[in-house]
Amino acid sequence: MACTHDHSCEEHDCSSEWSLYKHIDLPKVSALNEAVPGSVKSVFKAWEHRLDFSGEILRSNDGDTELLVFVPFTSDVKLKSISIVGGPERTSPARMRAFINREGMDFSDAQDMQAVQEWELVENLQGVLEFQTRYAKFQGVSSITLHFPGNLGGTTTQIHYIGFKGEATKLKRDTVGTIVYELRPNPADHKTKAETGAGLSHVG
């Protein structure tokens, strides 16, 4: 389901609502079938820069309009909605499918697996549309994979901006891992005096 903004962003702090880009593990973001390797990282930016078309964009290879985008987060997030700003002249994606907490997917996986949610997209060159999630299904998201099967009729698919609205947990996943590790007894830290030799004397 897509909805439009019902307020003026000059009077409402949209930037803070769409701030989950700060929680994206950008070095680990990847895409399949991108024309320029690594260009997918350029589409994740602040809300106020979503209409800045001067920089690099995510573009599929000519003649192949399918894209698969993997987005890991630095902390678990709850996703309320997604915004996609595509390219002009029918190069915007026509459909989006989302998979949660699945790493290493390829196009075959995306085609064979049931998506958590699917959306029919429309051209959103002004960045005023957001596509709402089934919020109850988008809790505890450590990564999201977005599958764009095709576009609105162009020879290549273009994406300028991908934004996520929601909230992040305060505890980063690497911190959780450290806490879990420290809660597990380490035998080396709990050796007896006999095992360590501490407090023992040797008779010569």
Q: Given the structure, what is the number of helices?
A: 4
Return Rg in Å.
23 Å
Biggest sheet, open or closed, and with what strands and sense?
9 strands, antiparallel
Report low-confidence residues grouped into runs of 5 or more.
175-183, 189-204
Helix/strand structural class: alpha+beta
Overall body shape: globular
Average pLDDT figure:
84
Intertermini distance? 83 Å
Q: Could you tell me the number of beta strands?
A: 9
Organism: Linum trigynum
Pfam family, one: PITH
InterPro entries: Galactose-bd-like_sf (IPR008979), PITH1-like (IPR045099), PITH_dom (IPR010400), PITH_dom_sf (IPR037047)
GO cellular component, one term: cytoplasm
What would you say this structure looks like, in words?
- This is PITH domain-containing protein.
- It comes from Linum trigynum.
- Belongs to the PITHD1 family.
- Residues 9-184 form the PITH domain.
- The chain is of the alpha+beta class and 204 residues long.
- Helices cover 12% and strands 30% of the residues.
- The chain is built from 4 helices and 9 strands; from the N terminus they run E-H-E-E-E-E-H-E-E-E-E-H-H.
- It has helices at residues 14-17, 107-112, 173-183, 193-196, and strands spanning 2-4, 30-32, 58-59, 67-86, 95-100, 117-120, 129-132, 141-148, 158-168.
- Strands 1, 2, 3, 4, 5, 6, 7, 8 and 9 form a 9-stranded antiparallel β-sheet that branches.
- The chain starts with a strand and ends in an 8-residue tail after the last helix.
- Residues 175-183 and 189-204 have low confidence and may be disordered.
